[in-house]
Amino acid sequence: MAEKRNQTKPQPCESSATDSLRGVIFDCDGVLIDSREANVRFYNLILEALGLPEMAPEDEDYVHSRTVMESLRHIVPHSELERAFQEAGRISYKAVLPWIRLQDGLIQALERLRSKGVPCAINTNRTGTMGLVLDQFGLRPYFSPVVTANTVQHPKPHPESLYWILSAWELTPENVVFIGDTDVDCRTAAAAGVPFWAFQNGDLAAKRHIGDHREVADAIEKRLEP
Question: Burial, 52: exposed, middle or buried (Cβ in 10 Å; 0-12, 13-18, 19+)?
Fold first, then answer.
């Protein structure tokens, strides 16, 4: 488990523009990977072990962007929580990895950013399963740091995770963008004063709406032009 650090809020900036873009922060699920079906299968396996019905569509939406602890508390009766956590620890996430796929064009976009010297980070509410995903798809070389719900005291939508990355990079909020696909990501960016780009979700309030990873790379490269 990564060491938790309680980061101090960086010096606030008046501007939220991204004219001096120097780093890109990505959410994981729904942005780097399409993991919705895998997450649904994982939590439904837990419910099945407890003799409970499968999740409703609104519960599937919830677990897509929350931590394991938050998700189980949401979908499992309080009296069954201890058993639910035991089942979550017993069921290997490897069992659902075949239902995860990389978002189209991701590797090509990351290679373009790396060639330009643009650092990339991950900010996710995943916990111990993040390492499996990184290794499954060979993503470790592209991201530093990787901040999970285990890294910080307060996961998204609390802004601590973004402060953690800004501190690691020695950057301020206007120097980065956070790319996410849920209201949790949007609220996290707003709380930290970091410009937010919405990935494949036109319903979110955002500085920019992005359709795919080629568009991500194009937009960032334009910001890097003198």
Answer: middle
